[in-house]
Design a protein that fits this description.
Elements lengths: L3 E7 L4 E4 L2 E4 L5 H10 L5 E9 L6 H13 L7 E5 L5 H12 L5 E5 L12 H12 L5 E6 L7 E5 L3 E2 L9 E2 L6 E4 L2 E4 L6 H5 L16 E5 L16 E7 L14 H10 L4 E6 L8 H8 L3 E4 L3 H13 L19
Parallel strand pairs: 1-4, 1-5, 5-6, 6-7, 13-14, 14-15, 15-16
Antiparallel strand pairs: 2-3, 7-8, 8-11, 9-10, 11-12
Length: 337
């Protein structure tokens, strides 16, 4: 078997504790040392320290770095790629890289950990092992592997369907309600009714992404809540689109100027497109609030995670010259349901 390219970016999985403070550590790869103590040299890793950040500090430039590195490296020399990431923004990077890298001819797996590798209750080694087992069983696709604190086995999600971990238990979830598969007793076990592996591996990229990803322009993402003050929201000079999330019924406020509708009109005055996420594929029947927003020019996006909507829109506004106008309404890597 060819070696696995192990890309380190920092995060808890690449950190140590010193004086009760968790800090990234670029001087060693502790999780890999612990892995080899348990599993030996069952697989070969080629390690590269691409970034060294806590993932809450993640910015667009870090996505550029990861994507462009993988576009330039000779991937034919590897059986797969594992990206060790922080858990805070794991779902965002999963979505972005899932959209960018799904056309690659080998599997790409993102993973993280809940505690530093040396902590006795850390899932770092288990998650790394799950990523290895997954690569041994699939030919291509972009996935996220993680063992939730409330579960015994690692879960495997399609990277564009995973949602941010909750703030109490730190558990990740999927927009379709279940993990794509689990790693049970060293085997990949698909969840009932999940997308067939053959369908994922036969998926052809609909569009060709540029060999170099550049993200100079921004997307402003807004999460609504009751009595939200839209007057306090400003968009920077580099903002080229607004992604307004909706409540679960695909709705948002429309009463008065200080509402989603009022902000929509403000964006139109500045020629900034206003996207709403998200709607069911068949949204012939909807609330009057949703109707009013769409009638006034809001652009609906089909059911997907906020992370996938943000990733696609960020790519679209920055690569408009190379992507078709209907890019936002096309499924790139199973992100819509």
């Amino acid at each position: 078997m060819k070696p696995i390219l192990f890309v380190l970016t920092g995060g808890t999985i690449g950190s140590t504790v010193e004086n009760s403070v968790i800090r990234t550590d670029s001087s060693s790869c502790r999780v890999l040392t612990l892995y080899r103590e348990i599993y030996g040299e069952d697989v070969r890793f080629e390690t590269v320290q691409l970034l060294n950040i806590l993932s809450e500090n993640l910015q667009k430039k870090h996505w550029e770095c990861i994507a462009n590195y993988l576009f330039q490296v000779n991937l034919s020399a590897y059986s797969g790629v594992i990206i060790a990431h922080g858990s805070d923004t794991l779902s965002y990077s999963s979505a972005f890289l899932g959209v960018c890298l799904s056309g690659l001819s080998l599997p790409v797996v993102l993973t993280a950990s809940d505690r530093v590798p040396d902590h006795p209750e850390s899932n770092a080694v288990a998650n790394l092992r799950g990523a290895v087992v997954l690569i041994q069983n699939v030919q291509k696709g972009v996935y996220t592997v993680y063992r939730n604190p409330t579960e015994k086995d690692c879960s495997v999600w399609l990277s564009t369907r995973i949602q941010e971990a909750d703030r109490v238990y730190g558990c990740f979830s999927s927009i379709d309600g279940y993990a794509w598969a689990h790693i049970i007793n060293e085997k990949l076990v698909q969840t009932k009714n999940s997308l067939p592996l053959s369908l994922i591996e036969k998926k052809s990229p609909l569009f060709s992404f540029p060999c170099s990803v550049q993200l100079p322009y921004d997307v402003l993402m807004i999460q609504p809540y009751p009595s939200m003050d839209y007057y306090s929201i400003t968009s920077g000079e580099n903002c080229r689109a607004v992604l307004h999330l909706t409540y679960h019924s695909s709705s948002a406020s429309v009463e008065g100027e200080n509402s989603a509708l009022g902000f929509l009109k403000h964006c139109q005055e500045k020629n900034i497109p206003f996207y709403l996420a998200s709607f069911p594929q068949n949204h012939e029947i909807m609330y009057e609030t949703s109707c009013l927003l769409l009638q006034n020019g809001a652009i609906p996006l089909t059911y997907c995670t906020k992370e996938a909507a943000y990733a696609k829109l960020l790519l679209f506004i920055n690569a408009r010259d190379t992507l078709p106008e209907n890019f936002m309404n096309k499924e790139i890597f199973f992100e819509t349901i």
